[in-house]
Structure formats: C-alpha cells, structure tokens
Design goal:
D-amino Acid Aminotransferase, Chain A, domain 2; 2 domains; nine-stranded mixed β-sheet; six-stranded antiparallel β-sheet; 8 helices; 29% helix
Length: 286
C-alpha cells in the first residue's frame, strides 16, 4: 500500500489521486494552497495556516466547501494514514470542475486536496555554509494585479524568477517590487541583521506574510532584538551584518553571498544561528 491522498472527503492511493482536466485549478491556476510542516506528528502553526488559506480564498472569491475544523480533521487523517511523524502537508483548494471559459460561476464544486509527504528544500550544507543568491530581473507581482499576500496556485511569477536563479548558477532568487525595493525570494521571506537589529520588508513591499516569518519575528522580540519592517534596497542587503531566508519548508537558511557580495564575514551569522536554534526548539514544543 502506497501513500494516501485526500481528495474531496476520501483518502485514495497516490496512483489514483487525480483531478479532472476541466478543473480550473489546472486550466487557469485558479485556487489557493498552503504548505504546512508536521513535527512529531503534530501540525505546526495549524491555525495560522488554515486562517491564511481562508483569507486567500476570500480574496479570490473562492468558497471553501468545508469548515476550518473539517479542514484540520482532513489534514490530521491524511497525516495519520501516511504515518507522517516529521513531514510536510500540501493543502490545496481548487475552483473545481467547470467549462473551458473563465467564468468561475461555472465551477459549482470547489475541490479540497491534502497531500502529506516528506520534503527537503535545501541540502544540509546550505545550513552549515550558507546560501549564495542573486537578484533577478523578474519583479514581484504588482499588488493590484494579484496581491502577493494571496497564496494562489498561479505561481508563474515565482517560477520565472526561479528559472533566472538557476540560469544564474544559484538555487534562489531575490525579487524586487515595482519600485525597486526588496520584496522576497521565490519561496521564502528574507531578513537581514544590522547592528543587532532584525529587518525584513513590510507587507506593503509585496510579500507573502509568511508563517515562519512571523514566528521568527516573535522569537527575536523575545530575546530583546528589535524587529523592524522598513523598505529595503539591494544596498541594505549588501551591507548587512547577516542575512537569512525563512519559509515553511526551508525553516531558516543563512545567506552568505548576494550578487557576488560577501555578507558579513561570509559565514552564517551568530543571530541567524541563535534564531535557528530557537525556532527548532519551538517546533519541538508543540
């Protein structure tokens, strides 16, 4: 028996986990999702992720056909069915089956999908030695086009930036916004440390308000580190004492080189490593 996937109220085998070619999630990227971690068989920051899913759905006028409690129960059942102790949940809501036209009103039944599996975004050496990243030409979506706070299934903006990073010989890209300020990376939020202060772009810069981002900001405040959300330029990144990325899959990964500039002393920073230890302790507390 292989992995089990939850689709619309039923657990099915991975090989049978299929959606219609008429689903608007496939045809148009019309839907929302969350990536959620499981630590010790417990769903980490479950409420925050589910709340954000419903907010993303609300923003695109998508009605999720389950209560929040039912969504949580579906995730717990899928985690248990797959025997996941430490892993990853991909929670997806699509607009559902419709016509070949754009009209979402022709999609009467949105679909809810839960995948529980393992994930490894970056190899261990990146956590020990730090990551090299570059700024890429593709900018973050204009907030009035599709607001980056909506975690939608249309990820082409991020994929284009990811391709540019790979073509540039790195695995992650820094994306600027329409005004030239730092927004975020293709799958992670970005932080810098300057004079023992923690800085990260504000939501208004065009960032997804990451769940891990919020945890890290709380942890920093808890140890007396000031946390600020100013608009940041590439100059601010280049001259930072430390830099790191945060995300559900990545957790906290140090950055030691940006666009060929060595950050700090070229090694993962002391506050970065301290926050990583605190974060890992937080995941064990659940």
């Amino acid at each position: 028996m292989g992995p089990k996937v939850y689709i619309d109220g039923k657990l099915c085998e991975k090989a049978d986990a299929k959606i219609s070619v008429y689903d608007h999630g496939l045809l148009y990227g019309d839907g929302v999702f969350e990536g959620i971690r499981v630590y010790g068989a417990r769903i980490f920051r479950c409420k925050e992720h589910v709340d954000r899913l419903y907010e993303s759905a609300c923003a695109i006028a998508l009605r999720i056909p389950m209560t929040k409690e039912e969504i949580v129960a579906a995730m717990e059942a899928t985690v248990a069915a797959n025997g996941i102790k430490d892993g990853y949940i991909r929670l997806v809501v699509t607009r559902g089956v419709g016509t070949l036209g754009l009209d979402p009103n022709k999609c009467p039944h949105p679909s809810v999908i839960v995948i529980a599996d393992t994930i490894q975004l970056y190899p261990q050496e990146f956590y020990e030695k730090g990551l090299h990243v570059i700024t890429v030409p593709t900018i973050r979506n204009h907030p009035e086009a599709i607001n980056p706070r909506i975690k939608s299934l249309n990820y082409l903006n991020n994929i284009m930036a990811k391709i540019e990073a790979i073509n540039g010989g790195t695995v992650e890209a820094i994306m600027l916004n329409k005004d030239g300020y730092v927004a975020e990376c293709t799958g992670d939020n970005i932080f810098i440390v300057k004079n023992r202060k923690l800085l990260t772009p504000p939501a208004s810069a065009g960032v997804l308000k990451g769940i891990t981002r919020a945890v890290v900001m709380d942890l920093a405040a808890g140890i007396g580190v000031p946390v600020l959300e100013p608009n940041l330029t590439r100059y601010d990144l280049f001259t930072a004492d430390e830099c790191f990325l945060t995300g559900t899959a990545a957790e906290i990964v140090p950055v030691v080189n940006i666009d060929g500039r060595i950050i700090g002393d070229g090694k993962p920073g002391t506050l970065t490593l301290e926050l990583l230890e605190l974060f890992r302790a937080e995941t064990r507390k659940q």
